[in-house]
Amino acid sequence: MSSQKRVKDSQAQKRTSQGSDTYETNLLAGEEKEDLNDSKRSLKHGQDNIAEDYGHADDQGEDALQIAVRYFEKGPIKTSQSKDKILEKHLKTVENVAWKNGLAPEGIDILLNVALSGKFGSAVNTRILKCMIPTTLIPEDSVVKAVSWLCVGKCSGSTKVLFYRWLVAMFDFIDHKDQINLLYGFFFASLQDDALCPYVCHLLYLLTRKENVKPFRVRKLLDLQAKMGMQPHLQALLSLYKFFAPTLISVSLPARKKIYFKNSENLWKAALFAVRQRNQGPPPEPLKLMLGPAQVHPVKRKWNSCSVIPVLNSSSCSKECGKKGMTLSDYLSSNGSFPLEQLKSFPQLLQNIHCLELPSQMGAVLNNSLLLHYINCVKDESILLRLYHWLSQTLQEECIWYKMNNYEHGKEFTNFLDTIIRAECFLQEGFYSCETFLYKSLPLWDGFCCRSQFLQLVSWIPFSSFSELKPLLFDHLAQLFFTSTIYFKCSVLQSLKELLQNWLLWLSADIHMKPVMNSPLETTLGGSMNSVSELIQYVGRLSTTAMRLENNSTFLLHFILDFYEKVCDIYINYNLPLVVLFPLGIFYSALLSLDSSILNQLCYIMHRYRNNLTAAKKNELVQKTKSEFNFSSKTYQEFNHYLTAMVGCLWTSKPFQKGLYIDPEVLEKTGIAEYKNSLNLVHHPALLNYAVSFLLQEWPEERTVSMSSIRGKKWNWYLDYLFSEGLQGLKLFIRSSIHHSSVP
Amino acid sequence: MDSYDTSESTPRHSASSRLKDYFIGATPLQKRLESVRKLTSFIPTPPRRKIPQCSQLQEDNDPQKVAFLLHKQWTLYSLTPLYKFSYTNLKEYSRLLSAFIAAEKQKGLAVEVGEDFNIKVTFSTLLGMKGTQRDSEAFLVQILSKSQLPSENREHKVLWTGWFCCIFGDSLLETVSEDFTCVPLFLANGAETNTAIVGTWFQKTFDCYFSPLAINAFNLSWMAAMWTACKMDQYMAATEFLWSVPCSPQSLDISYAIHPEDAKALWDSVHKTPGEVTQEEVDLFMDCLYSHFHRHFKIHLSATRLVRVSTSVASAHTDGKIKILCHKYLIGVLAYLTELAIFQID
């Protein structure tokens, strides 16, 4: 083959290879291009070694490599006496480059040809094969050409073995496998050779696709098994066949983990690592199939499930059994559905969504994000029912507090719940099974076991009528809430906040779909809003009581205010007609808190309430039609009450007159003379230390610190100081709610 | 927690609450959820049940097969609906299941489906074994050993038997689509390893789920009352109760046997509603037994745990084992077991 031709060939091949495989990721395509440049460069060097380019040492090495490659390509020189020496020199060159940087596709192509064509002796072939290490990828064509040499019978048995080992080890780096798969029959026939059998089995294991599994091959393998007995490599291949064709063959692997294939990679361990490093991105994934579930979960716990979540298996069995009178020809003609085992990417899912084979056990989707996408959009009720039944029963079976004194599977149950929660987060939707599981198990829950998981499940309860959920769930939760530690209370509030958020997101997305649906069951937006509002009120009641139980704990109050940070923004953030204010108990606890961050958070929430209410008012004025969702004047009054109380305390130093009213006589009895000032921005217990720091910083020479001196201009400086100290909520509140004419 | 009951009630009908209904209307899954909600929010079992009537077997039943089911101890399982199960494919299922069992028995050795093994699996329907026409047909699965000797009477030895049935399972039927076959009750007799293999195969093939069906003391009392209430021409066995006292190092069992006619007389004295059994009557019946025992032995049986009930109709153990003795009340017994199984898979 002339080098001219080679160029053409290789370019043509590049073109086809770039065009054909649509599933290659961009990353890989990019690498391929780079690779192409690489090979061109090395090719150029090979072509015109007259253009002496001695620029770099590396280039020198590469030139030597080109010479060596050409030497091997031409074949051994018969006459030369020093041929051994030259051969050795060239071999060394190739080996050095290969182990250092890997060989370009061109080099591999030529050298593979050399090694398998038998031009040199067996020892040389072995050495060449051992250094067939790619820089990044191996072109499929080279492999195909190499395989064609196997038919000619020019290479020895040991070379063949080595070639197969090499193929298995480098399998991941072969750029495409479609052509190679066409040679499936040839490889399969090589199983006859006892020496080759283990390696061919391994190769077939990597190569087999569903369409390769045919009855005659099954029979052949069974014959081999009969001849050779239970061989681990045969077992592996057979079980793969069973995986694809459960109606043809049955095998069950021993529970104990076992090595099924001799390690072909050993020879190239360091090199493989280097190539992977060079490739960086993930190699084109070969099918990762399980050798039966036993391998994943070595401990067989009970017959019902080797592992909690079933292994992904396509449902060929029940489907084909469903057809009456399945014949051999049915089997031989592929039925055009897309096998699950090949589903690797989202575009594939989109292309084959109409003909996707579904797993035989629907529970397997939990571990597969692509299938989760699928069940998320599928309308087929039976798919959801299958998942529902499986998940309900599994939760019930695995739930540890159902089993008396049986906490040994606790870890497993926790992991299972984590998997479910991951899936729910991924789908942004709760499963019905989990909801029913909560109904059943919450009354029996100790509030301790799997707490984090359990509360996360609560936050994924699908949107529902609150009054319906209350006796099933929220009443039980309240009991636990009141009788548990402060940390439990905080966790519950946290998960209720997430629940509220999930409901709001769901509703706000749903509102826009509403007009298209016509359902016999009427559900009004007003009804939904009622439910949300009841949830908020429920949390309000929990919070108020909890504050009393926990002695106005600041820590708890943070969690409560976090919840209201969600609540105050419903109208604007979720475009839903709902504004619910916090209860008095929470408002005053926050206003009179000793913690500045609480006060700051309160200010922020008040600011957001104001914005939401103003926006709502504006919309009401614009469109007078939607009278259903006008907020009652009560909401506005309530807000104004809070606002007056806050301004009275913090700003105008007139507390306890409007809003929070306390009889002056009572106040006198406290014996505090200057009670009026005592809650303003300067004297408020949460801010007092800011005021002191402010004075010390601005007037360090002053002997005494006079709080009351902060007024007029100083008051404004003081405000700026507070804002600069990070009290952003306060800033927003003052900017929006207080007109600056009223500086005290 | 009534203390913070919201006074404003939502005006909407309960079923209309889910926005998801917009998409799917009242789907089976929807009904499922509704039924679970109902079950969880109220008392799990209805306060009254019918006393089993005389033979309710449909006329086309096979007496030989029915007789085969009696006097054997069955382990109970609940089973979620089978997906894409077809009664026309029973032959094919036999082939596949025998190959599966053969492969499981000789771990690691692959077998061809349809090959001749030393075991044989048969699937057959149990005609007439249903409560209503809507109930799925019951079916029987057997593992038989093939004798190596080609003797004249090729009588296969039965290694394992299991059967699937649904008696008055309407409530379940309503909540699944037609791709599913509802046989919520599974009964097995034979080595548990075989049950495991068969169960695994069913789970993999029809995407269903088997769970052991235990019978709690509450339901055992119901069984005791309902079975005592059955009219018998002749009693074959004593009415016997077994209580377990949890004490270390070994638990103590208290057995309490009564002449069946005495038990019936006691029942008749507490029984008021004709043809039905109510929760009140069950409680009263058991209380009478307790107080009688207390009078003699000064032991409060109510503080112990009822673990077994045997009558002439059937005997049941809390572990989920049952033996049906009386042909006449077979359907009645199975109907209650189906109810329990459905409750478990709901």
Automatic annotation (TrEMBL), chain A:
One of its GO terms (cellular component) is nucleus. Residues 1-12, 36-46 have a biased composition (Basic and acidic residues). Keywords: Centromere, Chromosome, Nucleus. One of its GO terms (biological process) is CENP-A containing chromatin assembly. Pfam families: CENP-I. It comes from the Eukaryota. Residues 1-46 are annotated as: Disordered. Residues 13-25 have a biased composition (Polar residues). Its main location: nucleus. InterPro entries: CENP-I. It is found in: Chromosome, Centromere; Nucleus. Belongs to the CENP-I/CTF3 family. This is Centromere protein I isoform X1. The gene is CENPI.
Automatic annotation (TrEMBL), chain B:
Keywords: Centromere, Chromosome, Nucleus. InterPro entries: CENP-L. It is found in: Chromosome, Centromere; Nucleus. It holds the Pfam family CENP-L. GO terms for cellular component: chromosome, centromeric region; nucleus. Belongs to the CENP-L/IML3 family. This is Centromere protein L. It comes from Neomonachus schauinslandi.
